[in-house]
Fold:
Amino acid sequence: MSNAKSFELDLKFGFWYLKLSTLIKQEKIMSKIIKREYPSQPIVGVGAVIVKEGKVLLVKRGKSPSFGEWSIPGGAVNVGESLEQALLREIKEETGLVINIGKPIEILDKICRDEKGKVKYHYIILDYAGDYVKGKLEPSSDILDARFVSPEKLDRFGVNESTKKVIEKALEDSGKKDERIATETEIISSWDFKKARWYHRAIKESDFPGKALEVLQPITHGCKSILDIGAGCGTLSIPLAEKIKYVTALEPSKPMMDIMKREAFKKGLKNINFVNSHWGKVRLPPHEVVILANVPGLLNDIGKFLNQLEEIKPRLIILIRGVNPKNDKFYFKQLYPIIFGKTVPEKDDYFAVYSYLHRHNIYANVRIISYNLDQPFNDLEEALKFWKVYLSLKSKEYDQVIRDFLSKKLVKTPNSLIARIPKKSAIIWWKINKV
Structure:
């Protein structure tokens, strides 16, 4: 056979081999599609609630059975894959992102029938919590759109109720995970985040919100709008929003704001305007009531603060301030001499504020409330890290001293250690008569 003829046969063989390979690949793809439609048995799928900076990743589906719907990313498990392998692959393929997989959140059935009642799709879906690690968000051809969304905005995207419940569970799990013991590096680099989580744990166990609301609800009855300055994790904003038509929660700390948004989402509240900013750095509309609870920095120059409030045009001003400057919160009065060789600086309490108001012909009402703001810890090591953060200690020089001190102070319970912190606060309020 001539070389020319041999070459021609080789070309033909190569062409048909390539053609056959393509057909085989297409047949495999088609077989997968066929198996997904009118399947002989349920198909296992995986999904993830991916959280980045307090926001949740949503994808808009470009294929049936959920075409055009916003949901969480994920897909089917291939033969030979573990659930986690499938989830990592699907997230990478659909969004371009790399994630850390958390614990399983929910198991769901998704069964879709055709017009004759025959099962067209049947998925069993395992949804996981997940955290963004790295990568640029780049939706695949199967995804029409993808974006990170604040939990309180899910309704704008038409997210169905079952998916919202999964997201809520995942966010709750994320909050609990953030409360676990951090490494030394985490404490130094993200102490504000840790403080927010610790404070939220204390507030959840505290009777402060209930005691404060016993005073606040009668005096704010009938009001339609409240501005809560320094709203923290929503200690007052959230329960007040359940009674008041409109609440603005002003909070400069993003970790605190993230917690507050999550708690409001869990309660289904949509009447809170979240403003992540410092007082005086953003223009705010008029509100009937202004609340400033336990933000002593703004009361260092109370005259300036009251002048700034004129732009808000409140009819009622409520200040909440600590009582008894000698109260030994976090045992600082005992620890400062041991560690720093000096006494803890004294602080003003509510009486300085009340006296200023009286001198300027503002005759305010005052109610003193007593409550507990106990701080729970998983164990002694977490408590040690807590005190090192609040004492601004980065070295291990005093670790054993603090351990020994705390082991005598903290109260053991079946599930935790508790720092008992009894407190008193003064609720000061007065009405402004408009001329």
